[in-house]
Amino acid sequence: MVRQEVDGDVAVLTLANPPVNALGAALRASLDEALAQVIADQAIRAIVLAAEGKVFVGGADISEFGKPQHPPSLPDVLERLDASPKPVVAAIGGAALGGGLELAMACHGRIAAPSAKIGLPEIKLGIIPGAGGTQRLPRLIGPDAAFAMMVTGEPVSAEKAAALGIVDSVVLGDLVAAARTRALEIADSGTLPRVRDRSDKLTPEAREKFEALAADAVKRDPDATNVHALARAVRAGLEQDFDTAVATERAEFRALVEDPRSQALRYAFFAEREAARVPGLPKDTPRRPIRTAAVIGAGTMGGGIAMCFANAGIPVTVIETEGGALARGLDRVKGLYAGSAKRGSITEAQRDERVGRITGALGLEQAGEADIVIEAAFEDMGVKREIFSKLDTIAKPGAILASNTSYLDVNAIAAVTNRPQDVLGLHFFSPANVMRLVEVVRAEKTAPDVLATALDLGKRLNKLPVTVGVCFGFVGNRMLERRSRAGERLLLEGALPHEIDAAVTAFGFRMGPFAMGDLAGLDIGWRSRKDFGGRAPVADSLAEQGRFGQKTGRGFYLYPDGARTGTRDPEVEALIARVAAEHGVARRSFTPDEIVARLMYPMVNEGARILEEGIAARPGDIDTIWINGYNWPAWRGGPMHWADTVGLKTVAEALSRFASETGDDSQEPAPLLTRLAAEGGRFAGLKNA
Ligand code: 3HC
């Protein structure tokens, strides 16, 4: 696990624990032993700590959290490192994250390759750094800058890390050689620069700034237990001696590991990675080369999808039927890139390169050379079938033909071609250039290499592809429909739009369903219900009155003078009461907890059906979709994980009650949910389909 090489009077210790050199028990033990040996070796004057692979160290081993710890602990290893009488210099060749950076900061010098990424992302896992990170980073760069980095968890580039003072220098070329030179320099100087001994950055001004940042962060997310803990830990470093403060940090860290929020976030971390593995699709499935792409449709979705390709360096042709629509679409894309360059999120050169990768063209024939064609036309089966039957004659042999449908039957789309094996769905989320989630819809005849290529492509596009099967609305929209239906029903039964939205935002969503509907436009759901069937008596009545939401100044709420936040409208509340009376629904009041249960349990129930039908391979895939496509609060781990924490018996019993209260039999618990509830089981205990 740790390779030892001796080069003159320098020992090079190389961590080798693929894929990310996570500091699990075996690696810790091996490192501790190697350090003890080289420190004791009279012939060694200095030590270099390097790592194999693209990542220096991806942190502590997250899968060990919450389980009995095997010694030595990471803080123990770092103590040995810190106390070494011989200089140790970290050669950071790739990402040094979490425990990885903590390890590097316990060294006496740090040299980074230009590609290195440096950060303490623990906050994203619901915890805080637990091996001295909250103490050493403030000593290196000041408590204010350190808190700012730790509270977002975003890593910085090597260059930025050098500018901040986290690493000593950035070196092109032989990193280990540079680290070796630095280690010998330190040895020659006769003094060991230990981060723990530094206090020059702990100035009263920096402290004041830190306190302001901490107050802000806590105010922004008062329920985030770890943000409070982070502030306390950094403050401890300013008030206590180093060892006491490290112990304070460790105690905070340990408590947070048991926090349900952190458990959910760690679950989501692994669920997201597991989603990349599709049961029954071997790792060595061949891939088709994707060098060029075509997108059919220059609308918001088509343009956004084209941007994903351009951003990833893949030339893409955007195809329209008519010059005006094409020009408008391309202008919109250029405008978005110009905005990004103006904000500084890309350089002007990047803007020009990306714009240059997108070519507009008229007529489907222009898709003939593309390795993948993504249709992003109207959500209408007739339109899609026509496009695919034409593409069948136009696209080159072996090209992948994808539909960006959000609901429709991809089997039926594939059936109009003579190559259904090459067809699949790629359901991007809006705005497609921003949202990471892509539902990859595997149709009945989709060939394994087409699926494997689409999943790889998703990663190349910097997306999070999750494989789903064919059904109306796939996983995300199918479950969303349940929530929408339950929301309408709640309105009739007496809960008001603002009460429902408030319950949903208190649950952790950024927006409630009605504010969201107003933002997206109530005409969208109205039209789609007209096309696909389904009734939403309140939303439909509003749309019939031309109340389409924010864009018309009126929807579920009022938006006077272009306001972005709606206010209550007595007219809407009267309309709801009228519709309820027409439907003979008795009205009462609901508590926020009741509202959440009424909205979310039916989604969980639909998730159970989705699992039974094999539309999703595992509960974690559903949760990954909801966290990344629908803004489900990650710290609640997705609907299926959340249901496990509520208890499936509670969920199933409540659903039966809802079914009898509303007369809607589809609310009855699905067989899988009934079985798990009876067994005292959990979704998390299910084996992969
Ligand atoms: N612990 C355990 N497993 C880890 C891990 C970690 N810290 N980091 C990554 N892995 C695993 C993944 O689960 C995945 O496993 P799989 O192949 O079986 O699915 C595999 O390593 C590869 O991971 P990715 O697919 O994410 O690989 P990438 O190359 O895309 O990204 C990375 C590499 C940037 C290092 C990314 O994995 C990452 O962000 N890891 C987590 C970083 C992190 O949060 N570190 C802090 C950990 S907590 C900590 O250190 C506490 C300390 O303060 C005491």
From TrEMBL:
The keyword Lipid metabolism applies. Keywords: Fatty acid metabolism, Isomerase, Lipid degradation, Lipid metabolism, Lyase, Multifunctional enzyme, NAD, Oxidoreductase, Peroxisome. It catalyses: a (3S)-3-hydroxyacyl-CoA + NAD(+) = a 3-oxoacyl-CoA + NADH + H(+). It is found in: Peroxisome. Residues 293-469 form the 3-hydroxyacyl-CoA dehydrogenase NAD binding domain. Transmembrane segments: none annotated. It comes from the Bacteria. This is 3-hydroxyacyl-CoA dehydrogenase NAD-binding domain-containing protein.
